[in-house]
Design brief:
- The chain is an all-alpha fold and 65 residues long.
- The chain is 22% helix and 0% strand.
- It has a domain of 35 residues.
- The longest helix has 14 residues.
- The structure holds zinc ion.
- The site of zinc ion has 8 residues, from loops.
């Protein structure tokens, strides 16, 4: 374990330090919205492309529903 202080996380979109946790893991609603749009527009599977299973790289917001 390293002594990395993760008290202030960084935005998953722009990489800026978050000033609030209201939009975790993003710094603002704008970045959260951007990520959502990426999901909606780039979340589809391209026909012909092999889909890898077990990616496990999805965001976990803790909310399901
Ligand atoms: Zn951001």
């Amino acid at each position: 374990m390293s002594g990395t202080s993760d008290k202030v996380g960084r935005c998953a979109i722009c990489g800026k330090p978050r000033e609030t946790d209201a939009y975790r893991p993003f710094c603002s609603r704008r970045c959260a919205d951007l990520d959502l749009q990426r999901w909606l527009t780039g979340g589809y599977v391209v026909p012909g492309e092999p889909v890898e299973d077990g990616e496990g790289g999805r965001f976990d917001t803790g909310e399901d529903g």
